[in-house]
Design brief:
The protein is mainly alpha-helical and 196 residues long. The protein starts with a helix and ends in a 5-residue tail after the last helix. The chain has eight helices and no strands. Helix 3 crosses helix 4, helix 4 packs antiparallel against helix 7 and helix 5 packs antiparallel against helix 6.
């Protein structure tokens, strides 16, 4: 596992070069790097949420480092995996299209890279850009990632991704709003606590 090769793929994705998904789809050695990209990106989203509270307010919620950086990042990564599984089940079981789960995990792992942009949520005034845009980029790249591993048509891919994304957003929002005096969540989902 060469970190330079992983970084090269992330830079290509930053340039919206979606051929990265074709490169990793069939390479069994890319499973671990893809999972690392997804996990690190989720943790960076959690770190961004933590720094948002530390830099933008005179107070910080209870256990902000534990609840936003660590638990928020872990929840984000776990629910992203749920998204991938939901998309896979819909593609294979509902639409009866072919797809390989490991190939999907590889492509979707790299598609999670935009979550790392949430790290910059701490910048005053610009925090909505770094809270919302990474989720939009994540959704768009996930469509390309799923399309790379299936023969399903684009409408089916969008529907499968929307279902998985909706479940992730719903659960992360419930977690963010369910805490009474504690902020829980990574990225955008940590600032939802301030909205009501």
């Amino acid at each position: 596992m060469d970190p330079n090769l992983i970084l090269n793929k992330i830079v290509r994705l930053a340039r919206l070069d979606t051929t990265v998904f074709d490169d990793v789809r069939d390479d069994v050695n890319e499973l671990i790097p893809a999972m690392i990209v997804a996990a690190v990106s989720s943790l960076l989203a959690g770190l961004g949420a933590t720094l948002f509270w530390e830099f933008n307010f005179d107070f910080s919620p209870d256990k902000v480092w534990l609840n936003t950086f660590i638990l928020g990042g872990v929840f984000m990564a776990a629910l992203y995996l749920v998204w991938v599984l939901i998309a896979y089940v819909i593609i294979v079981q509902v639409y009866r299209a072919s797809a390989d789960l490991q190939s999907l995990l590889r492509t979707m792992g790299y598609a999670a890279a935009p979550l790392a942009l949430c790290l910059f949520m701490f910048i005053p005034v610009l925090y909505p850009v770094f809270a919302i845009v990474p989720l939009a980029l994540l959704f768009v790249l996930s469509i390309y990632a799923v399309q790379a591993v299936t023969n399903a048509d684009s409408t089916q891919v969008v529907i499968a991704n929307t279902a998985g994304f909706s479940v992730m957003v719903l659960v992360l929002s419930i977690v963010a709003f369910s805490s009474d005096k504690t902020v829980m969540g990574a990225g955008l989902f940590s600032i939802l606590w301030e909205i009501p």
